[in-house]
Structure formats: C-alpha cells, structure tokens
Amino acid sequence: MEKYTEFKQISLPKLNNLQPRLESTCLKLMEEAGELAQAIGKFRGMNGEKVDLKEQEVIELISKELLDVAQVAVSMMFVLEEEYAINIKEKVDDHIEKLVKKGYIKLEE
C-alpha cells in the first residue's frame, strides 16, 4: 500500500470478556450512536434543555461517546471476521482505497 500524507491510527482492543453476536452488536452500535447524538444535541442546544455543562465538559462527553461508537464498530468487525470469515485487513485496505479514489486522502509524491 502506498503512503499517505497524513495517517493517524487508532487501535482499539478486541473485547475478550464478551461473546458478541452480529445482531446484538448492531443494536449496541445504534444505542451508542444515540448516546453520541444526544451529547451533540445537548451541546448544540437542540433539545430545548438548559445545559449547565461547560463547553469543554460537553466536548469530553462527545469524545467518550464517539470512542464507545468506535469500539462497538471495531467489535462488530471482529464478529464478522470470526463468524463470517471476513478479512479485516483486506476490508480496511479496500476502505482506504475508496477514500483515495474519492479524494479524501492524498498520496505522497
């Protein structure tokens, strides 16, 4: 694979104290995405409630909820790998290639 101008990597662990299934993991992903949306909605004042949190506190909450979403998404990839023989590295490489084609990532020259 070619190098990219900027490439940060976030590694999240495979959870070894759970036995997730595809359906339960999908439901958990939707739950966590809802919690992220709620945190963003409160930060933007979209729900009509008065927010007593400082901006930095809300940003911290958003980052925590976003990592929960990411962890569940990664867990779902592990389920696909283990139960359906999906090659995660191949899928990630395909995803990066798609991002390059769409112009979201520029190759180093």
From TrEMBL:
InterPro entries: AF0060_NTP-PPase_MazG-like, MazG-like_dom. GO terms for molecular function: hydrolase activity. Keywords: Hydrolase. Pfam families: MazG. Residues 23-101 form the NTP pyrophosphohydrolase MazG-like domain. This is MazG-like nucleotide pyrophosphohydrolase family protein. It comes from Marinisporobacter balticus. The lineage of its organism: Bacteria, Bacillati, Bacillota, Clostridia, Peptostreptococcales.
